[in-house]
Amino acid sequence: MADADFIPKAALAVPARDSAHARLRLIRTPSIGPVTYRQLLARFGSAEAALDAIPLLARRGGGRPPILADPREIAREIARVAELGAGYLFLDDPDYPPLLAQLENAPAALIARGDLRLTRRPCVAIVGARNASAAACRFARELGVHLGEGGATVVSGLARGVDTAAHVGSLGTGTVGVIACGIDVVFPPENAVLQEQVAARGLLLAEQPPGTEPRARHFPFRNRIIAGLSSGTVVVEAAPRSGSLITARLAGEAGREVMAVPGSPLDPRAQGCNLLIREGATLVQNADDILQQIGPIDPRMVRAPASDYAAAPPLDASDAIRRDVERLLGPVAVPVDELIRQSGHAPASVSMVLLELELAGRLERHAGGRVSLIG
């Protein structure tokens, strides 16, 4: 599909009002996640202004300011990405994957090598067991071939087993590999050639900075990207408590199609798929079933994200609002919508209090738009 180092120029661009360096300092600061990043840029209009405001916000939240990412480390990262022939995709870039941008916790930045146009086609995630049976791997490979022939891009995680088979089947027609490590790190090691092929003929994406080795905590983040890129997720063999089922759950939470291939009740590797079907996932037996399920792509889905992070009007919360919101918070995670309802304050003011608490290290964000106090 593309030369090894092909990255559309837009993927490397950053809006003139902002710098990649400043954005990455926010993104690489441990206490600033995707939701907080969005809120900071929406509130202050630029990464530079947000960086300047963080100490004051943290003090208002009753804690110490977070230690921002070292500028020298950021400069080294940017140089390394360029050296690898890769580029950055920031959340409001026109080439940022449009379906992924719809997630509340979409990655603030991705590192990409390959053909970004593949994410503008209907995308289908194929995931499954690492210790998959030979039959499951063959089926996943055939799905990859036929989905590509049907005009879809196949998305997977470059893991052993089903992921590997899906990528091999779709190399000739369009495949996207999402990895849980740096874009210059190969995992598993035996997929070194395949990972390079995916970057050369398809698209390789990483959220972690170069040089990052895969850790268990990185894989759920990787899985949300796989699910978020795709109109539907297909599970081909999976144990009941597997990462593949996490991907399927994330796809369902994002409002995407969840599909599963049935298997023998005597095979433990099929139990996860059979469980998904029992809980309402669509049973699929071939690529046509999948293509019919996701349907033709809606042109509205391929538009660039609408937000340009224009500065919002000042919405600083009063001490009374801070007291009301903190009183409603505790160690049990609650939806932000519930905090707004019970406090009776404007959503923007409540969001500002939560932002201050998070930057002060006193708030934790959870899946599903829930928050809790730390300690």
Give the termini distance in whole angstroms: 51 Å
How many beta-strand elements? 12
CATH C-level class of the largest domain = Alpha Beta
User: What radius of gyration results from the CA coordinates?
Assistant: 21 Å
Helix content: 40-55%
- CATH architecture field of the largest domain: 3-Layer(aba) Sandwich
Q: How many independent structural domains?
A: 3
- Strand order in space, largest sheet: 1-2-6-5-4-3-7-8-9
The outline comes out as: globular
Q: How does the major sheet shape up?
A: 9 strands, mixed
Structural class: alpha/beta
Q: Which parts are unreliable, with pLDDT below 50 for 5 consecutive residues or more?
A: 1-17, 299-314
**Percent in strands:** 5-15%
What is the fold-level CATH name, i.e. the topology of the largest domain? Rossmann fold
Task: Please state the average pLDDT score.
Answer: 88
Q: Helix-strand pattern, N to C? A: HHHHHEHEEHEHEHEHEHEHEHHEHHEE
Number of helices: 16
